[in-house]
Amino acid sequence: IEAAVKAAREAFPGWSSRSPQERSRVLNQVADLLEQSLEEFAQAESKDQGKTLALARTMDIPRSVQNFRFFASSILHHTSECTQMDHLGCMHYTVRTPVGVAGLISPWNLPLYLLTWKIAPAMAAGNTVIAKPSELTSVTAWMLCKLLNKAGVPPGVVNIVFGAGPRVGEALVSHPEVPLISFTGSQPTAERITQLSAPYCKKLSLELGGKNPAIVFEDANLDECVPATVRSSFANQGEICLCTSRIFVQKSIYSEFLKRFVEATREWKVGIPSDPLASMGALISKAHLEKVRSYVKKALAEGAQIRCGEGVDKLSLPARNQAGYFMLPTVITDIKDESCCMTEEIFGPVTCVVPFDSEEEVIERANSVKYGLAATVWSGNVGRVHRVAKKLQAGLVWTNSWLIRELNLPFGGMKSSGIGREGAKDSYDFFTEIKTITIKH
Ligand code: NAD
């Protein structure tokens, strides 16, 4: 980290004084090279993380390419403000300057996607970067280093440091010459980062976990809602911060929804990541698999029912893969809102389905957890959709859909799901300092 800080500080004057157009050209060059190596990166990401190759090919790597292209373009379009006070003979305007050396820390679930979602805006705004990917998924970050060199990123502008959180992450967070930390990961780690960075009053962006509700009203179109909610619960093995893990269904359609949801979940094939028919691959690690399974055990001990998946259905895998960290998508019912399965982030292929009576009741129950990242609302009633979306304590609410992103708009969570937002304007604001200048004329 010391060596990286030195390199990043030395590179800062040169990189920050380049025009946005020049920086944009370099970012576009990175995007082009990454796109040309898409298959190679997708194969590596899938092997490293356990996700299906299909998902790495269609989501992780294309989105990483898009991250560079998006910020290469958006950096060209920022303007500043100017106001006048003629009666005092002066005008005021704002300027933005890059912050300096940006510390970026990312998790293992969408390794290259989330790393580049930080590197691209930080570089575009003129900062130099020290990035620490998760120690569990280092391969595509390593491959990216080579590609950044090839794209002509000057030495010292992006420094990727590999290593474990308590050692490398803490050295970065507590380094006095790194004034900004952008972190995506778990809430307990965010607490530690907040403590370590507090003495320096660092700029902090924290993108954390969720306990995301899906609310299904009786007028929902179940033909669309059921498959979308299976996907929102189990995509990437349920290892996406935006995954649904509490499904509230209005009582009048509860039985029908549950029947169809369990049937559709059973159709989700768990397979080796290269299997083109697999919807889910392997979980990240043995420790994580055991943690996810322990939640199912706790639910059973509390008297809940497991409708499909873990302990109920049989996992069918080739003999040589049976020791892998695979788990069936699991649906739990008859569980209380206070249960840890309904309040804690499991971050695996486990979701709970519970009934509700009224709109007011479900809003209160959906909001009753400490997290506030994302929610989905399923209803054909346009008034209800607007009303409920506004009252939910979540930074992102999808209605009759899931995971449709508009990169310009703010992304992030409320409550324990984080502080700060990411997006075109929000990331630019975060990765720059603003100053107001008053001119007396
Ligand atoms: P984690 O908090 O264990 O680790 C995240 C990163 O922080 C890793 O690089 C890790 O090495 C580093 N780290 C760990 N301890 C550290 C310390 N003491 N100081 C500095 N850095 C440290 O999280 P994870 O298990 O890798 O990721 C899963 C979590 O990430 C889930 O909670 C998930 O919801 C969250 N997540 C949130 C978003 C979002 O955008 N809100 C996106 C993806 C994942």
TrEMBL record:
EC number: 1.2.1.32
GO annotations of cellular component type: cytoplasm
Metabolic or biological pathway, per its Swiss-Prot or TrEMBL entry: Amino-acid degradation; L-kynurenine degradation
Domain Aldehyde dehydrogenase stretches: 1-437
Molecular function as annotated in GO: aminomuconate-semialdehyde dehydrogenase activity; retinal dehydrogenase (NAD+) activity
Subcellular location: Cytoplasm
Signal peptide boundaries: none
Alphabetical keyword list: Cytoplasm, NAD, Oxidoreductase
Active site, renumbered: 207
InterPro entries to which the protein is assigned, alphabetical: Ald_DH/histidinol_DH, Ald_DH_C, Ald_DH_CS_CYS, Ald_DH_CS_GLU, Ald_DH_N, Aldehyde_DH_dom
Family assignment from sequence similarity: Belongs to the aldehyde dehydrogenase family.
Protein name per the record: 2-aminomuconic semialdehyde dehydrogenase
Species this chain originates from: Cebus imitator (Panamanian white-faced capuchin)
Gene: ALDH8A1
